[in-house]
Specification:
The chain is α+β, with helices and mostly antiparallel strands. It is built from 5 helices and 10 strands. Mean pLDDT is 91; it is low at 1-5.
Length: 205
């Protein structure tokens, strides 16, 4: 944690997941590098009573408001899982590709035995990215088909304005989880072609 003002150079030196205490537009503020949009920036936390004043100050400097739709598009483009979509209380970090935040070698903790069992046996499903040249948008709950048979389910989907194509994340059986695998996504009364990608490669050409 570093004490600073909003224009201090130390703010730009903060690394991912770090935060600093300071002030902006006369308000106490916490500047966080924990944003979940996929963009390079900060979350600014201020007292509720001063939020409108801070926002007015930012807007005068060129800040533009956006909604959850923009946030969702950005985080899917970045391949970030979201609670209630890609992860929930029943999801294993193994199948969600989140073992980079888990240390099974640090000793027993809540859920460690179950995680270790899933890792040793291999997950029954894997979270993958999907891209399609079609403009129809995959949505949560849509079925993913592989070899003509149901192979998984979409968890999040959006039409990416950055790449002008549909992108999504979803769980598929391990047989269809390899990058480059061709699948289909059922959207209403038709199926669109899609290709499995690593979650972090959804914006690759």
């Amino acid at each position: 944690m570093v004490a600073l003002s909003a224009n201090a150079p130390e703010l730009l030196a903060l690394k991912r997941f770090q935060y600093a205490e300071g002030a902006i537009a006369g308000a106490r503020a916490t500047f966080c590098r924990t944003g979940y949009t996929g963009e390079d920036g900060f979350e600014i936390i201020v007292p509720a009573a001063q939020a409108s004043t801070v926002w007015a100050s930012l807007a005068q400097r060129g800040a533009v408001p956006c909604g959850l739709g923009a946030r969702d598009a950005l985080r899917i483009e970045a391949g970030y899982p979201l609670y209630g979509h890609e992860i929930d209380d029943e999801t294993s970090p193994v199948e969600a590709g989140l073992m980079w935040v888990v240390r099974l070698d640090k000793g027993a903790f809540t859920g460690s035995d179950r995680m270790r069992a899933v890792k040793e046996a291999g997950p029954a499903r894997k979270l993958v990215g999907l891209v399609s040249e079609e403009r129809q948008q995959p949505r949560q709950g849509y079925t993913i088909f592989g070899g003509g048979q149901p192979a998984g389910t979409i968890t999040s989907g959006v039409f990416s304005p950055t790449r002008n194509r549909s992108i999504a994340m979803g769980y598929v059986s391990p047989a269809y989880s390899r990058s480059g695998t061709e699948v289909e996504i059922s959207i209403r009364d038709r199926r669109i072609k899609a290709t499995v990608r690593a979650k972090k490669a959804l914006l690759d050409p």
